[in-house]
Amino acid sequence: MDAAQWDERYRASAGGVWASQPPAVVRDIARALRPGTAVDVATGDGRTARWLAERGWAVTGVDFSAEALAIAAARSGGDAVSWVRADVHDWKPAASADLVVACYLHLPDNASAIARISEWVAVGGTLVVVGHDVDNIAAGGHGPSDPAILFTPELLRGALDERFRVERCERVTRGTADAELREGHAHPAVDTVLHAVRVH
């Protein structure tokens, strides 16, 4: 979907497109980190950026959908989030960040996009990527059905170079009670999670 299609999807959403909280795996990883600067890539309606800001992070939320960012800004109140309308292929932060998060960013060039955003991580900083795994199709989980834009652990691990230490890179299954699985989804969903630290 391009920016115009996402704008339309956000315009049509009465209660928001996503759950109100970030994915549980993102919350678990971030809780163990000392707050600093963060970039939330493909922030959408800003749920991850807002959650981080509430916990002391100085956050930049980036998305190419103007409608998504309008919702994000309206919901954010006076928190420490800077909302930026941009495409991840063209934009980069003015300075490296202590935490870079990308939730459900699915592109035809996934590996190169992840490699690009990994450049934004400061030495000692953390990269967290979570998205639909290719096995999600067979599992019947919600999400894209085009395997060309879905993740595998091998794809995400291979997007990083020797500057990163991979703490975790694996498939995870979210049960039907997970907050992400709204609107009567009857099947578990399979994601890929990458957690890496830039060591030099």
Automatic annotation (TrEMBL):
Q: Which residues form the Methyltransferase domain?
A: 39-125
Q: Does the keyword Methyltransferase apply?
A: yes
Supply the SUPFAM superfamilies for this chain.
Answer: S-adenosyl-L-methionine-dependent methyltransferases
Q: Name one GO biological process term.
A: methylation
Supply one GO molecular-function term.
Answer: methyltransferase activity
Q: Which domain of life is it from?
A: Bacteria
Name the UniProt key words of this record, in alphabetical order.
Methyltransferase, Transferase
Matching entries from InterPro entries are given as: Methyltransf_25, SAM-dependent_MTases_sf
What is the official name of this protein in its record?
Answer: Methyltransferase domain-containing protein
Q: Can you name the source organism?
A: Microbacterium mcarthurae
